[in-house]
Amino acid sequence: MMQRDGQPLPAAKEEDDMTKPLTIADEPAKQPTVKKRRRHRVWPWLVFVPLLLILAAAGWVAYTLYGQAMQVRDDLTDMKKELVSVVDQVKDGDTEAVAASAEKIKTLSASANKTVDTPLWDLAAKVPFVGANIEAVAETTKATDIIVSEALPSVLELLKTFDLSGISVAGGIDLQPFREVMPLLPALSETFVKAQGHLDKIDRDAILPFVEDNIGQVVDMVAEATPLIEVGNKYLPTILPMLGDGGTRNYAVMFQNNAEIRSTGGNPGNAAILSITDGKVTMREDWAVVSFAALGYGGTGLPYIEPAEKAALFENDTTQYVQNYSRFPEFADTSSYIQQLWTKATDETLDGVISLDPVMLSYMLAVAGPVDVPGYDRQVTGDNAVQTLMSDAYEDFGTGAEAQLFFDAAAGAIFAKVMSGDWEPMAMFDAFDRGNAEQRVYMSFVNPNEQAMSAEFGTDGRIYTDTATTAQVGIYLNDAAYSKLEYYLSTSMDVACDPNARTVTTSITMTNNIPHGNFSNYTLGARNGNFGVPRTTMMLDVLSFALPGGELVATSPEYSDYSSMDRSGNYNGLDARNIFTTIAMGESETVSFTSSVPEGVNVPLSVRYSPTTTQTPVTIQESCVVMFPGTEVPAP
Question: Is the entire prediction scored with pTM above 0.85?
Answer without folding.
Answer: no
